[in-house]
Design a protein that fits this description.
The structure holds two protein chains of two kinds.
Chain A lengths: L26 H13 L6 H7 L11 H11 L1 H12 L9 H7 L6 H9 L3 H7 L10 H30 L19 H16 L6 E4 L3 E5 L2 E5 L3 E5 L2 E7 L11 H26 L16 E2 L2 E7 L6 E7 L1 H15 L1 H6 L21 H9 L9 H4 L3 H10 L8 H6 L6 H9 L4 H4 L6 H28 L1
Parallel strand pairs in A: 5-6, 5-7
Antiparallel strand pairs in A: 1-4, 2-3, 4-5, 7-8
Chain B lengths: L2 H13 L3 E2 L13 E7 L7 E7 L6 E4 L6 H20 L5 E9 L6 E9 L5 E3 L2 H14 L18 H15 L8 E3 H8 E2 L4 H4 L2 H5 L10 H10 L18 H24 L8 H6 L1 H48 L7 H20 L11 H25 L1 H9 L3 E10 L2 E2 L6 E2 L2 E5 L11 E4 L7 E8 L4 E6 L20 E5 L40
Parallel strand pairs in B: 2-7, 7-8
Antiparallel strand pairs in B: 1-9, 2-3, 3-4, 5-6, 10-13, 10-17, 11-12, 13-16, 14-15, 14-17, 15-16
Helix pairs in contact in B: 2-4, 3-4, 5-11, 9-11, 13-14
The chains are: A alpha/beta, B alpha+beta.
Chain lengths: 473, 547
């Protein structure tokens, strides 16, 4: 609506918006984690959610690192099989850094968590349900990204040297970087293995400057491997730094905060993968605190180098971005993913998202059946989903059908307290005092909460009616 | 979002129509607004693609960049846009009124009377959404420092003369758009959202056509369904039947329609350039071979024709994408014109006129373009101005509109009710007794009215202050002691006090904004804020790369 006055604060450019509080390890994050669980409280979330909720199983954040490593050994097989059943015959959509980072946007959504871990092609499912996702990237934008990255790599990475000198301390006399061949044309598994070797080799030569161009990192997510491809990783002195190349500009020293945030979340996934790799090589567990600096050979720095075009030109400019907060968030989300078994347990047996394509590739699965399978997974819809999730339009249609208040925005639910449907809320607005009678029967504090929300709504309705009547009459 | 607007949204969900959020129009609308629908190139920041503009809804004018990455073509586009837009912007600078003021002489401290010019009207640009405002700001930033042939050092790529001027105007307008309540440049989605609630979220309201669907649902369809069609309906060519309101284009359009059309234009242009006539072959050699010349001329003619065709095709595809939004903006304006204007609009529009006049004067005085980054004092001044304007806007909207006042009442910042009792009382502490009557108001509101809290009588002919004496929540009454606005006599002036039975509204906030402390001159910036800006920082010409 009206631009808030604090918009003027944009005069002071910020490329490092996130300064995580250096408070005692994990405290703020643990607090957040509690919040998430609190929100999952099944009291009023309907039977499906209530069944899925197993309070005893929620792993405390402190065990996160271990959980992630252990999960691949113990339960991987049955889990992988179950996920593959969900996926059906369709090839697995690999969970890339972008998808992982997007999960952070809506961590409470079980529908997304399960479909993503199973590698289901959400766009195809949405299309079959009649709500094709309107996503896509313009060929112009893609071309721009390619041109910019190619320009950086021209002439032996000449354009990258200056940012590396300035931000990572590459000595001025060094004119060339060691760039090992990472077999970019091979399969992901081969590339990941090759990257591991190259990383170990580079880390064992502290004096050298090595640039890994499009390395392939492997991260185990919910029992299945996800392959991640950072733009570049620079290794020196036994440590490495993630370099992320983006084609949005840094204009007069500041960039679009939303885009910087997205890049930071993406880079955090790479840093996490590198941390896990370093820990696995050293045979140690990843530190409990996401803010702890890992001191192992090949450990990643906790800030990444973001390389963007400067102003309206094609010249690069670089900024270091602290990603500790994003790293903490990502780790927290991934622990939730490792608890995917709990979500699966709540699904009716035989649930699958198989589209049963015929020979021509057209889906043959009846829409109602598919819709039923999707509906078995509770979604946490909010209008933000429309821009980040392929199923957003489907979930919106569902939210509208269910008359739920989430269709109006995430904040609305907080305002309306326990009133969950539009009809309920409007009824409360029409006669707020009505619920007072019911309060005698229930003793819970929720009831008074509901009364309070209803009374406020009724008061608001009275004021609104008065104001509108005044002008009409 | 406040509870009242949430309630309006809930009602809209039920009724399937947009529900009012205001009873009056809270933004000034010019009699002759310029509607401007811009398009940007995906992936390139601030690279314009096209713009559709005009003051007549029947006659929009289209300007395009045939190849968005071509610097020369971009400058040509900007020059055409400047030639189209600047006359409109400058046309309001001629008619002025003289405003009397006083100025303090810096040496003697004496006040002298001065007259300042104030333009009687100002331009108004309407764009579809706030992303378009940002796009115009980027255009302004990318053009206002361009050097032209008239500069002492024009550089390798001089821009047409009007381009930097256009950039300075766009920068001024987009900066002004940041000021709450200003109306020089307005995004239509925000305008509509201020006055009506739809049955969807704020995010979905950013799509102009989807928001308008709640005002004009298609016959036989619900508003939500109409909005969904506006968002996603595609024709047989996989193109959106209702393209988004700019500045971004649909990726499918880029891929399937725009990219081929641009390539076709590029190819035709390249063919024309390769033509022998254009490679500068000496005239003598051509004369010898009449037939060759004939063939060349025919080929050249054909090449020109192809360029023309390709260019027309580009124009037509871009126009098709822009026209639906163009009509939407005008439909939105129709809705807004139908609302009665709020009482304080003229006062706020005067601030806009001052802003316009100020920019006109700065241009006339030959001042350099707005800097890339404001110095500390200017930034602080702008911030203070925006905060001041925000509070002024909040107060004025509340006074102008019972629905806005209802927001304040719901928040406990105001209360309205019926006067039940007026008891005369006097302050006898001074030499002569002063009237300090007690007024009791019965209200259903629950104001944060602790005893001793100062309250102000809203929508009264003069400022009238009172102080809360007590309240009785069980009875629903608040008693206040009136402190001012009763004349200077022993008894209150007749009519200056409410009578029992009158409707009355008191606010807990002041009705006139306070002046903030003055800020120093930029040259006196304290070292804590970086000290006075250096001459280098203020250099108007910035060397910049253009690819």
């Amino acid at each position: 609506m009206i631009p808030h006055p604090s918009a003027a604060s944009r005069y002071r450019p910020t490329l490092q918006p996130h300064k995580p509080a250096r408070s005692p390890v994990g405290t703020p994050e643990a607090g957040h984690a509690e919040l998430f669980r609190g929100r999952e409280n099944p009291r009023r979330t309907g039977p499906a959610r209530a069944e899925a909720f197993r309070p005893g199983l929620s792993a405390p954040d402190a065990t996160l690192g271990r959980t992630m490593n252990v999960s691949t050994i113990g339960q991987a097989e049955p889990l992988a099989q179950r996920l593959s059943e969900l996926r059906g015959r369709a090839p697995q959509r690999s969970l890339d850094a972008r998808a992982l980072a997007a999960l952070a946007a809506n961590p409470g959504c079980r529908r997304r968590a399960v479909l993503d871990s199973a590698g289901v092609d959400k766009a195809a499912v949405a299309g079959r349900l009649g709500h094709a996702a309107p996503f896509g990237q313009s060929p112009f934008a893609i071309a721009r990204g390619i041109v910019f990255e190619a320009r950086l790599k021209d002439d032996g990475y000449a354009a990258l040297l200056e940012p590396l000198r300035r931000h990572l301390g590459l000595p001025p006399e060094a004119t060339a970087l060691t760039v090992p061949d990472l077999l970019v044309r091979s399969t992901p598994a081969v590339r990941a293995e090759r990257t591991r070797e190259a990383l170990a080799e580079a880390a064992s030569a502290p004096a050298a400057w090595t640039l890994l161009d499009h390395p392939m990192l492997r991260l185990t997510v919910a029992g299945s491997p996800a392959y991640l491809e950072p733009d570049a990783v620079v290794v020196h002195g036994g440590r490495c730094s993630v370099v992320e190349i983006k084609s949005f500009p840094v204009l007069d020293g500041s960039a679009d905060p939303a885009k910087v945030g997205a890049a930071a979340r993406q880079a955090a996934v790479y840093v996490l993968a590198l941390q896990e790799a370093a820990a696995a090589t050293a045979g140690r567990a990843v530190a409990d605190s996401p803010y702890a600096k890992q001191e192992l050979p090949g450990s990643p720095e906790l800030s990444v180098l973001l390389v963007c075009p400067k102003d309206f030109s094609n010249r690069p400019t670089a900024v270091t971005v602290d990603i500790r907060r994003e790293l903490a968030t990502t780790r927290r989300q991934l622990t939730r993913l490792t608890r995917i078994e709990e979500l699966l347990a709540a699904l009716p047996p035989g649930t699958t998202f198989d589209l049963a394509p015929d020979e021509a590739g057209s889906p043959t699965r009846p829409t109602e059946e598919l819709a039923g399978a999707v509906a078995a997974l509770p979604a946490a819809y909010s209008p933000d989903c429309l821009s980040s999730c392929e199923l957003g339009f489907h979930c919106r249609a569902q939210a509208r059908c269910a008359d739920s208040v989430e269709q109006l925005g995430r904040g609305v639910r907080g305002e309306l307290g326990s009133l969950r449907t539009v009809t309920e809320a409007l009824a409360a607005a029409a006669h707020g005092g009505g619920s007072a009678e019911r309060s005698e029967q229930t003793e819970e504090t929720e009831q008074t909460e509901e009364d309070e929300a209803a009374a406020r709504l009724a008061h608001a309705a009275a004021l609104r009616a008065e104001a509108l009547a005044g002008t009409a009459g | 979002m406040s509870l009242l607007s949430t309630l309006a949204r809930l009602e809209a969900v039920r009724s399937g129509r947009a529900e009012p959020l205001a009873t009056v129009r809270h933004r000034h609308l010019s009699e002759r607004p310029m509607v401007l629908v811009p398009l940007a190139t995906a992936g390139e920041s601030g690279a314009p693609l096209a713009v559709l503009l005009g003051t007549d809804r029947q006659a929009p004018r289209l300007h395009i960049v045939p190849q968005p990455l071509n610097r020369t073509q971009r400058f040509d586009f900007l020059a055409r846009l400047a030639a189209d837009l600047l006359p409109y912007l400058e046309s309001f600078g001629g008619e002025v009124e003289q405003i009397e003021g006083s100025e303090k002489d810096p040496q003697t401290g004496e006040k002298t009377q001065v007259f300042r010019e104030l333009c009687t009207d100002a331009p108004q640009l309407i764009v579809p959404n706030s992303a378009c405002v940002q796009h115009l700001a980027l255009l302004g930033r990318s053009t206002r420092f361009r050097r032209t042939v008239e500069d002492a050092d024009p550089g390798p790529y001089p821009a047409p003369t009007q381009v930097p001027l256009l950039g300075r105007w766009l920068t001024h307008l987009t900066e002004r758009a940041q000021v709450p309540g200003s109306s020089l440049l307005l995004p239509m989605t925000a305008l509509l959202a201020r006055h009506w609630a739809t049955g969807q979220s704020h995010l979905e309201d950013q799509h102009l056509a989807a928001q308008l669907a709640w005002h004009f649902p298609r016959p036989g369809l619900t508003a939500a369904r109409t909005a969904l069609l506006a968002e996603t309906e595609r024709d047989v060519h996989n193109q959106l039947t209702h393209p988004p309101g700019g500045p971004v284009t649909d990726p499918r359009f880029d891929e399937l329609v725009l990219a081929p059309a641009i390539t076709r234009h590029d190819t035709a242009l390249a063919a024309l350039r390769e033509d022998p006539e254009h490679t500068g072959r000496p005239a003598g050699t051509v004369q010898d071979a009449g037939t060759v010349q004939h063939v060349d001329a025919a080929q050249a003619e054909q090449a020109r024709l192809r360029v023309k065709e390709a260019s027309e095709h580009l124009h037509s595809v871009l126009e098709q994408v822009l026209l639906p939004t163009w009509h939407d903006v005008w439909r939105g304006l129709d809705l807004l014109y139908a609302l009665p204007p709020a009482a304080h609009l003229a006062e706020r529009w005067e601030s806009d006129r001052w802003s316009y006049t100020g920019h006109r004067d700065r241009l006339a005085a030959g001042e350099p373009p707005q800097p890339k980054q404001d110095d500390a004092v200017t930034a602080a001044r702008k911030l203070a101005q925006r905060e001041r304007e925000q509070s002024r806007l909040d107060v004025q909207e509340a006074l102008d509109d019972p629905l806005a006042m209802a927001e304040c009442r719901l928040a406990g910042e105001a209360f309205a009710g019926t006067v039940t009792e007026v008891t005369p009382d006097y302050d006898t502490s001074g030499r002569s007794p002063k009237p300090r009557p007690l007024v009791t108001v019965r209200t259903t509101d629950r104001p944060h009215a602790d005893p001793g809290r100062e309250v102000h009588r809203a929508n009264w002919q003069s400022a009238q202050k009172a102080v809360v004496v007590g309240s009785d929540p069980a009875e629903g009454t608040v008693t206040v002691r009136v402190l001012s606005g009763m004349g200077r006599k022993k008894e209150p002036e007749p009519g200056s006090l409410p009578e029992p039975g009158d409707r009355i509204t008191f606010t807990l906030f002041e009705l006139a904004p306070r002046q903030s402390a003055p800020l120093p001159d930029p040259d006196d910036t304290p070292w804590t804020h970086g000290g006075p800006p250096g001459a280098a920082d203020r250099s108007p010409i910035a060397a910049e790369d253009w690819e």
